[in-house]
Amino acid sequence: MDLAFPDLGSFIAFVVAIFLFWILLHPEDQESVIIFVFTSILAFIISISSDIFAAVSAMLTVLLISSIYTKRYYLFLAAILLDIAGLVYFDLYQYDALILAISVATIIAVAFSRRFKSGVLENELRKGRHPEIERNRDLFQLLCGILVLILLYSFSREISFFIILLAGFALLTLGNIAMMSRSDRLTGFFYSMERPNVILGLGPIMIAGGTLFAMSLIVDEHILVVIVFTVIIGDALASLVGIRYPIKALP
Q1: What pLDDT score does 13 carry?
Q2: d(Cα 21, Cα 101) in Å, to the nearest integer?
Q3: Which residues are within 8 A (CB) of 35 and not within 5 positions of it... i.e. 6 or more apart?
Q4: pLDDT-based confidence at residue 247 (cuts at 50, 70, 90)
């Protein structure tokens, strides 16, 4: 992507977007201010290398992730879907910038959010304590990895990316519906694959963000296959083997 400063209209739109981002994010602590600064820098870089749609998607992603399991989630979901639709309609060839913006923004939101940082710690502390849940998690991750590989082999790179992106939004939305509805059946289904007292979907969000980030930078489909197999399938297989054949801790 070539760097080029946006025209006046795009610059004004970017400034307005940053202003709205500040209001909607409403940073009150050090962590949220850091998220705002890093995301704004990311959005600015994206705006001068791509277009306003991809830049706005970075800000909307942070708002979406930050509002997960609240009613505000649906507002930001609708906004980011409209933004993606705008990019597809006006400049489909900027999808690389879109994926990069969304993946990096996801990483920023998880890495610096106080809520998610505590969730990451809790996730690590509870790893391996419930073999049945771990097995369900890994089988689901394995299935997702296989489906991603099928997509990469069956469709073009850009179509695969958009399908993966929409599937990720669909899973997040189903989780949000489950938590908001407080349905025992729905929450029971999702928590059959999630460690107790851990933010629902934290692991998949982290894996998806990292995988999409790597995929946004790689053009060679063979390397993409290696990345998907290593990060998604390999991780799940290693965990399944570890559950089936546990290694005793050294004294």
Answers
A1: 78
A2: 15
A3: 25, 27, 62, 66, 108, 109, 112, 113
A4: low
